[in-house]
Amino acid sequence: MSLGFSNIEKVENNSDHNQKDHLISDSMILDIIMRNSQDTIYFKDRDSKFIANSRAHADQFHLENPKEMLGKSDFDFFPTEFAMLAYLDEKKIMETGIPILGKQEKLIKENGECVWFSASKYPIYGNNGEIIGTWGTSRDITALKQAQEELRQLNEKLENNNVELQKLSDLDGLSDLYNQRKFYEILEKTIEIYKQKQKSERKESFCILMIDIDEFKKINDSFGHPAGDRAIRFIADIIRNNKRQDDVCFRCGGDEFAMILLETGIKSARYAAERLRKIIEGSSFFYHNNEIRLTISAGVKEFEMEDTTYAILDKVDKSLYISKNNGKNQVN
Question: Model pTM?
Answer without folding.
Answer: 0.55
